[in-house]
Amino acid sequence: LEKSIKASPGTSLSRLAKNRGVSKQLVSKAVNEDLGYRSYRMAKQHILTASMKATRLTNGKRLLNGLKSHGGRIIFFSDEKNWTVDKSYNVQNDRWLAKERDEVPAVFTTKFPASVMTLGVICSTGEERVNAERYCEVMEEVVIPWMKDKAAGREFIFQQDSAPANIALRTTNLFNSHGITFWDRNTWPSNSPNLNPEVCKVSHNSIEALKNSITRACKSFRDRMEKMVAAEGGHIE
């Protein structure tokens, strides 16, 4: 059994049981208790080419140097999220208890569901598509005043990715006119979703739990950057 697993670790317990003419429960017990194996889901990772790794490494070193020379500077992180109005559905986990198949209701989806893009900004201390015009409007009316209020006179820097609205000349001019220091497209490592704080991988039961998760994610930013540089721009998770 162990020889078969080592030869093909992706073989399911059902297949291992069928090949041996025994029950799945028996194979599961042998795998877990006798051999000490556990069944894990394969993790998805962003493909990184040699060029991507080199860019991540160069920009990561530049960012680390900036963090070291401006240790007290507040960082405001941002990202966009596109929400669809179709019902969330997981084909594996969403089940319906019934005696007959025809009692199970269908989940209706559309080929091109309506969607809304939102912009989220979080601080390291604490209904339309977003084009350059709308992005600048939100920045000037909401985000920039909010960042200045939260910073309360302290030095801060704004992080954004290389989305078209973020790197538009109009956006750059807006930041410069307000004296906002920001990481431009040549500074923030592209293809680096594992560097920006992520707090939505798990559900939170309360606002306080979400706040604590955000705080931990922001505090770990420098550590993730150092791990990425140590990995020569490669994967860190």
From TrEMBL:
Coiled-coil spans in chain: none
InterPro entries: RNaseH_sf (IPR036397)
A GO MF term: nucleic acid binding
Family annotation (PANTHER family): PROTEIN CBG27172 (PTHR46068), TRANSPOSASE IS30-LIKE HTH DOMAIN-CONTAINING PROTEIN (PTHR46068:SF1)
Record protein name field: Transposase
UniProt lineage: Eukaryota, Metazoa, Ecdysozoa, Arthropoda, Crustacea
